[in-house]
Design a protein that fits this description.
Strand content: 25-35%
Distance between the termini: 89 Å
Strand order of the largest sheet: 14-17-20-23-26-29-32-35-38-40
Structural class: alpha/beta
CATH superfamily of the largest domain: Spore Coat Polysaccharide Biosynthesis Protein SpsA, Chain A
Bound molecules: uridine-diphosphate-N-acetylglucosamine, calcium ion
Mean pLDDT: 96
CATH class of the largest domain: Alpha Beta
Low-confidence stretches: none
Number of domains: 2
CATH topology of the largest domain: Spore Coat Polysaccharide Biosynthesis Protein SpsA, Chain A
Shape: elongated
Length: about 450
C-alpha cells in the first residue's frame, strides 16, 4: 500500500451514547471502536494515518497508534467539513490515494481495504465508495448508479425521494479517493441540504462532474457499514463481533457446549478440544492451549494458558500458565505470575507476581505475593507470604520440595532452603537453611485440670 494514507473521521461526540467520553472510545468486545479501525489499516499495510477529532481529542489520542496524526475539527459541520479540517495531511499526500473511514464503524476489515483498493486502482477511479447491500437501508446514504452502472451520486436519507429511499445499496461511509481529486472537489461542495452540513458524499458527485471516474465497490460483508449511535446499537455491534469470534473458534475445533456469557476478544486464540464453559471471558491477545477446560465463571486477560489446563471460577491477569496447570475454584492469579507445569492451586488462593515451580501445590486459603517458589512445594492451608511491610514490597524465595505447614507466615524478605519444613503456625522471619525444620511459634502450655477447677469454682455454665 505504497502512497496510501488513511483519514479516520472521529469528531462525533456521541451524545446519544450518553457517555462522558468521545463516541469512538465506546468499546466493542473490549476494544475502542477506533482501535478496530486503526488495526484494520495497519493490517492492510496503510501506515500513514490521520484522525479528525473533536471534543475529548486528548482522550482519543491515547488509544491511537504513535504515528497517527491528528486534525482538529472544532465545530461539527459535517463529514465534508471534517475532511477539510485535515487539508494539511492531505496536501502531504498529493499524488497518492486516501482511504476515508468512520471511527465508529469497527467492522471494516483489512481484506476489504485491500480488495477495494485493488478495484480502485484497477479501474483507474478517482473515487471508489465502499457500498453494501442491506435489508434495512434507513438512515444510510443511498447509492445512485447511472445506467452504465457507474456511481452517479449519494443521496442522504433526509434528502432522498420516496423512490430513492427504496434503494438498498448504501454508502458504508468508507471511500478511496485520489487525493488530488478529493482536494479539488472539496472546494466545490456547499451546505445547502436538509441538515445544513458539508457532506463528504457531495464530493463524489463533484468528482464525476469534473469528468473523473466515480465508482462503488460492493462489499461482500455488509457488516462493514455497521456503526452505533446509541447503547443499543453498540450492543448490536458487540453481538455481531461475539458471534463471529465464537463461530471462528468452533470452526477451529473449540468446544462450546453452551455459549451463555462467553465473550472472547477477537485477538485471542484458543486451541482445539478446549472447552469453554458459560461465563468465560477471555480478553486481550490471550492464548489458550489445547485440551483445556476454561470456566465456568472465569476471566483470562492478557495471559497465556498451556495445554491441558483447568481454570474453574478463576481470574487470571497478565500471567502465564504452563501445561497441565489446575486452578480453582475461586482463585485469583494477578499480573506477573508464572505457574509451571502441573501446578495446582484451589479454593481461595491468590498469587501475585510470583513464580511457582513444577508440581507445586496450594490447595486452600493462601496468599503468595512477590515470591520465587521452587518445584514440588506444598503450601499448607492458610499460608501467607507477608510481602509488604507498610512501606515496601519484598521478595521471598522458597526452594524445591519445601513443606510449608498450615498457617505459616513467611515474612519477606526471607529464604527457605530446599527440602525444609516449617511447622504449622510458624512466623518465619529469618532465612531457613536447606533440609531443616523451623518452628517459630509460642511454646505450647497445657494446664492440666484447669477447666475442671473452674467449673467447680463457678458452677456449670
Ligand atoms: C454518513 C454518510 C452516509 C453513510 C453513513 C454511514 C455523509 C453526509 N453521510 O452519514 O452516506 O451512509 O455515514 O455510516 O457523510 N464526523 C466528523 N465530523 C462531522 C460529522 C461527522 O468527524 O462534522 C464523523 C463522525 O464522528 C462519524 C463519521 O464522521 O465517525 C460519520 O458521521 P455521521 O454523523 O455518523 O454520518 P451519517 O449521518 O451517519
Ligand atoms: Ca453514522
Amino acid at each position: 500500500m505504497e502512497k496510501c494514507c488513511a483519514l479516520i473521521l472521529a469528531a462525533g461526540d456521541g451524545k446519544r451514547m450518553k457517555s462522558k467520553h468521545p463516541k469512538v472510545l465506546c468499546q466493542v468486545l473490549f476494544r475502542p471502536m477506533i482501535s478496530w479501525v486503526t488495526d484494520a489499516c495497519r493490517h492492510a499495510g496503510v501506515q500513514q494515518l490521520c484522525a479528525v477529532l473533536g471534543a475529548g481529542a486528548e482522550e482519543v489520542r491515547s488509544v491511537l497508534p504513535q504515528n497517527c496524526k491528528i486534525a482538529l475539527q472544532h465545530e461539527r459541520l459535517g463529514t465534508g467539513h471534517a475532511v477539510m479540517c485535515a487539508r494539511e495531511f492531505l496536501e502531504e499526500h498529493r499524488g497518492g490515494d486516501v482511504l476515508i473511514l468512520c471511527g465508529d464503524a469497527p467492522f471494516i476489515s483489512s481484506r476489504l481495504i485491500e480488495q477495494s483498493h485493488h478495484y480502485h486502482c484497477g479501474k483507474g477511479n478517482a473515487v471508489t465508495v465502499i457500498s453494501a447491500r442491506v435489508a434495512d437501508p434507513f438512515g444510510y446514504g443511498r447509492i445512485l448508479r447511472a445506467a452504465d452502472g457507474s456511481l452517479e451520486a449519494i443521496v442522504e436519507q433526509r434528502d432522498a425521494t420516496e423512490e430513492q429511499k427504496n434503494i438498498c445499496e448504501i454508502n458504508s461511509g468508507a471511500y478511496w479517493f485520489a487525493v488530488d481529486a478529493l482536494l479539488e472537489s472539496l472546494e466545490k461542495i456547499g451546505c445547502s441540504n436538509s441538515q445544513g452540513e458539508y457532506y463528504l458524499t457531495d464530493a463524489v458527485a463533484a468528482v464525476r462532474l469534473a469528468g473523473k471516474r466515480a465508482d462503488a465497490y460492493l462489499a461482500e460483508d455488509a457488516d462493514a457499514a455497521l456503526g452505533a449511535n446509541d447503547r443499543k446499537g453498540l450492543q448490536k455491534l458487540n453481538q455481531v463481533a461475539r458471534r463471529r469470534v465464537l463461530d471462528r473458534l468452533m470452526s477451529e475445533g473449540v468446544d462450546i457446549p453452551c455459549e451463555d456469557g462467553i465473550l472472547v476478544d477477537e485477538r485471542a486464540s484458543v486451541g482445539r478440544d478446549t472447552t469453554l464453559l458459560p461465563g468465560t471471558i477471555i480478553r486481550g491477545a490471550s492464548v489458550v492451549g489445547e485440551d483445556c477446560v476454561i470456566g465456568p465463571g472465569s476471566l483470562i486477560e492478557n495471559s497465556t494458558v498451556g495445554n491441558g489446563c483447568v481454570v474453574d471460577n478463576t481470574e487470571i491477569l497478565s500471567s502465564e500458565l504452563e501445561d497441565e496447570v489446575k486452578i480453582g475454584p475461586y482463585c485469583r492469579v494477578r499480573p506477573g505470575s508464572r505457574l509451571c507445569r502441573k501446578v495446582k492451586i484451589g479454593n481461595f488462593v491468590e498469587v501475585k507476581n510470583a513464580v511457582l515451580g513444577e508440581g507445586t501445590k496450594s490447595a486452600h486459603l493462601t496468599y503468595i505475593g512477590d515470591a520465587d517458589v521452587g518445584a514440588n512445594v506444598n503450601f499448607g492451608c492458610g499460608v501467607v507470604v507477608v510481602n509488604y511491610d507498610g512501606w515496601q514490597k519484598h521478595r521471598t524465595t522458597v526452594g524445591d520440595n519445601v513443606f510449608l505447614g498450615c498457617n505459616t507466615n513467611l515474612v519477606a524478605p526471607v529464604k527457605v532452603g530446599d527440602n525444609s519444613y516449617t511447622a504449622a503456625g510458624s512466623t518465619v522471619t529469618k532465612d531457613v537453611p536447606p533440609d531443616s525444620l523451623v518452628i517459630a511459634r509460642a511454646p505450647e502450655v497445657v494446664k492440666e485440670g484447669r477447666i475442671k477447677q473452674m467449673r467447680e469454682k463457678f458452677g456449670k455454665k
